[in-house]
Amino acid sequence: MEFSFLVGIIATLVLGSVAAKHRLLSEGGILAAILVGLTIFTFGGWNWFFILAVFFVSASAFTKYRAKEKTEVNKEFAKGGVRDFWQVAANGALAALIAIANRYYPLNTLYFAFLGVVATVTADTLSTEIGVLSDKAYLITNFKKVEKGVSGAVSWLGLSAAFLGALAIGVLAYILADLGTSYFKTPPIEPIFLIAIPAFAGVAGALVDSLLGATIQVMYWCPKCKKQTEREIHKCGTKTVYHKGWRQINNDTVNLLSSICGGLIGGGLYQLLKGF
Question: Residue 215: which of 142, 271, 155, 274 has the closest Cα?
C-alpha cells in the first residue's frame, strides 16, 4: 500500500503539472484531479489509474482541438475551457469510490461499473468537444434542429466521437486484462464483452447526459440576445432569467447522474452476460 501510494503521488503530480502547464484545469480542478487519481491508483492499482489517465489525456487533447472555433459556443456553457474542482469531481469522484469499494470487496461487477463510468465521461466529453464542430445539431427529445452547443443537442459527428471514445476504453480494458495488479483479476467473461460492455455503457451514459440536459438541467434566458444559456450572467454581460429545468440541477449534476447511469449499465451488463 505504501509503495502504491508513493507511485500514485508521483503519477498524479505529473498529470497535475501537465494540466497546470497547459491551463486545462483551475487550481481547484488540479486538486480534485490529484485526489481522484491518487485514490484510484492506491485502491485500484496501476491499470485502473491508466484507464483514468487515458480519459484525462483524451479529454484534454480534444478540448484543445480547434479551440478557437469553439470559443463562442463555449461561452454559452456554465463553465467553459478550464475545468474547476466540481467539474473534475463530477467526472471522477464516482470512479474513485468504486475503486475504494473494489479494494475491500473485490467484485468483477465493480470493475465493469468503473469501466462504465470512465467510458461515459469519455464519451460525453468527446461528443461535446467534437460535436460542437458539427454543422447540424438536433435536440434529443424531438430531433428538431437547434444551434450547436445547446444542452441536450446531439449530432452524428458527436455521436460518432462518443462511440469511439467509449470503444477506446473497452479496447484498453481488453489489452490490460492480462496485465493486472494484485487488486485486479481477469473477469471470467468472453473477451469481446470486455470491449462491448464499456462501449455500450459509455454511449448509453452519454445519451442519458444529453437527455437530462434537454429536460431537467436548469437553463436561463438572455433577454438582450434572445438566447438560451447555462449562464446566470450571459456572455454579453446581461443578467439572465430562469427559463426551464430544475434549479438544483446544473451541468455538473447532470454529468454525475449520467456517470452513475453508465456505471449501473456497465455493472448490470456484466451480471447479465457473465454466464455466456
Answer: 142
